[in-house]
Amino acid sequence: DSGIAFAKEHPDRADLQIHVLARMNLHQRRRTSVSYPRGSALPEMKWLSKTFGQINFGLDPEFPLPRRIEISVPTPILKAQNLGLRVIDPRGIDEPSAPRRDLQSFLDDERAVIVLCSGFGDAPDAAAQSIIERARDTGLDKTLLERGALLVIPKGGEEMAVLDESGESVNDRDEAREIRREQIQATQFADLGVLELPIAFLDAKQSNDCERIQAFLLGRVMTLRSRVEAQVASLTATVDELIATKADAD
Fold first, then answer.
1. For burial by CB atoms within 10 Å, which of 119, 192, 237, 245 has the most?
2. What is the pLDDT of residue 102?
3. CA distance 101 to 115
């Protein structure tokens, strides 16, 4: 382990801290923004993925370790015209039981659509289950049903390993997904009390999956907007009725 070897070279704690900071070159890491370079040989999305990874893991010598990375794109997110959308990917939830004000803020934010991601075989995984339990324990389980979804991410041919009721391998991906959906709803969702939480599947290597997920997420956003619009319309009607009643009384 290179870290252990480095620590043994500097047994004094203060001296070790000095050498670690020197290796980090913080005085050179002052850049805070970057744009897609014109004439780049890399396609935009590949450049974005590579650049994001380098900055996120401190591999770009010009950038400090970020607390947050903001990315602006010129095209509408989720192909949504006339909507100002932000996609927020919080830091991992590998320790979901730890106090996480950022996660709670998303549950409390009536404008946020909450997407819990999980692998195919263990969906919803322990972290996702913990978030669902957090919502339930704080009285936000109905809110999660209205604004949430579980995104199941299969990989490595997991879907074709699913067996049907007769114990035979499934014939296609869609059949495997329906079986897995029923398993999730009948077991984990039933125990957690969120049977109606929507489930979607995404294999990012399948272009049709990517199109479906964009439509699915946009649908969740529009459902949320429609609910708020109905509330505003009801409030407006109530105000109009009060104004009319007052005019009649006068």
1. 192
2. 79
3. 17
**Region 142-165: what's the mean pLDDT?**
89
How high is the pLDDT of residue 99? Answer: 62
Give the C-alpha separation, 94 to 117, whole Å. 12
30 CB contacts (<8 Å, ≥6 apart)?
Answer: 62, 64
> How far is 113 from 33, CA to CA, in rounded Å?
27
What is the C-alpha separation between 1 and 203, in angstroms, rounded?
Answer: 35
SS3 letters for 164-188? Answer: CCCCCECCCHHHHHHHHHHHHHHHH
**Strand 114-119 vs strand 199-201: parallel, antiparallel, or unpaired?**
unpaired
Cβ distance 120 to 153 under 8 Å? yes
User: Which residues lie below 8 Å from residue 66, measured CB to CB, with a gap of 6+?
Assistant: 55, 56
Identify the pLDDT of residue 98: 59
- Phi-psi group of 148: left, alpha or beta (phi > 0 → left; psi -120 to 50 → alpha; rest → beta): beta
Average pLDDT over residues 186-194: 90
